[in-house]
Amino acid sequence: MKMKSWIVIFISILIISGCANPEAKRFKNNKVVQAEIKELIVSKGAEMYGLELKPIMEGMEFGRGPALPSVDSTKLVVPVKTTGIPEFTFNAIVDIGDTEAGEIGIKGVDIYGNPNGLGYLGNFLMSYVFKTKFHKEIDGILNYDKGIYLDRVMVQSKASIYIEDEEELEQMMRAITADYTAGKFNNPDEYTYLIDTYGLGGLPQVFIKMDQASDSAATEEKFNNLVAYMTNNKDLPAAEYHIKTYSTPKDVSTFSKVLVIGDQQ
């Protein structure tokens, strides 16, 4: 590749990456500031939801804006881990900006409502306990033939929906985190209690993907055999199974089906 092309690529990367405000960058790298942010996140988790949180301060970075330059010098994103089983990783968003003293300071910390925040804990836990409870049945699907994979499981929780009443939201989160720290989401025997207490209703969603065979006819046969196996398998838990073949060769057809097993909860 010519030197001119490398220079164009390098400049493009710089433009896309953007540059943080130098004063904001010094603020971010300040060890005292980092300790204060860590304490704020930990205290919010404990006081609001009874959770022990572990902020990963070495992973803290500036947020990304919707336009160029993409770096948002008014937000810091901090990866955070919970200490329960299963471990859940999410982001805390720290708003920073000018204070009345004319210096950059911390304006607020959000651990719940941001797009990758603690608000997804409920869905994560419900999906985890479903996979734990029915891992043998799911493994039966995956072991039926070569090239069958579990893409993801989604079980919606009341704790992950939008609740306008902040007090009601906090009560719901405190309830689910209390059961989380007590280890109930790591105990398959608690599944019925957990789904009745925190499930949003409706069937769990299980997404299965399958590799294509050598040609369309072989792929269709493989796909139909799996669908028939699942349809006739009386041991599978009630769920909405999304089955799909994934295309690699352009001349091989893809197949998909939503298979509903069991009744709505």
Describe the structure.
The protein has 265 residues and is α+β, with helices and mostly antiparallel strands. 39% of the residues lie in helices and 24% in strands. The protein is built from eight helices and nine strands. The strands form two sheets. Strands 1, 2, 3, 4 and 5 form a five-stranded antiparallel β-sheet that branches. The longest helix is centred in the first third of the chain and has 19 residues.
SSE diagram, text form:
Elements: H1 3-17, H2 22-29, H3 31-49, E1 53-55, E2 61-64, E3 71-82, E4 89-98, E5 104-110, H4 121-133, H5 135-142, E6 148-154, H6 166-181, H7 191-198, E7 205-211, H8 216-232, E8 239-246, E9 256-261
Parallel strand pairs: 7-8
Antiparallel strand pairs: 1-3, 2-3, 3-4, 4-5, 6-7, 8-9
Helix pairs in contact: 4-7
Overall residue-averaged pLDDT value: 89
Number of strand segments: 9
Shape: globular
Report the sheet with the most strands, covering strand number, pairing sense and barrel closure. 5 strands, antiparallel
Order of helices and strands: HHHEEEEEHHEHHEHEE
Features:
265 residues; alpha+beta; globular; 24% strand; four-stranded mixed β-sheet; five-stranded antiparallel β-sheet
